[in-house]
Amino acid sequence: MNIAPGKNAVGNIPFDQARVDGLMEEAGIDVLLATSKHNTQYLLGGYKFIFFAAMDAIGHSRYLPIVVYEKGGPDHAAYIGNRMEGGEHQNNPFWTPTLHAACWGTLDAANLAVEHLQKIGKAGARIGIEPGFLPSDAYTLIRKALPDAKLIDATDMLERMRAIKTDAELEKLRTASELITDSMLATIAWAREGTTKTEIIEQLRREETNRGIHFEYCLLTLGSSHNRAASPQAWKQGEVLSIDSGGNYHGYIGDLCRMGILGEPDAELEDLLAEVEAVQQAAFSKVRAGTLGGDMISHAEGVLKASKVAAYTDFFAHGMGLITHEAPFLMTNHPVTYEGTYAAKPLEKNMVLSVETTMLHPTRGFIKLEDTVAVTDAGYVMFGDRGRGWNRGATA
Question: SUPFAM superfamilies recorded for this chain (predicted)?
Answer without folding.
Answer: Creatinase/aminopeptidase (SSF55920), Creatinase/prolidase N-terminal domain (SSF53092)
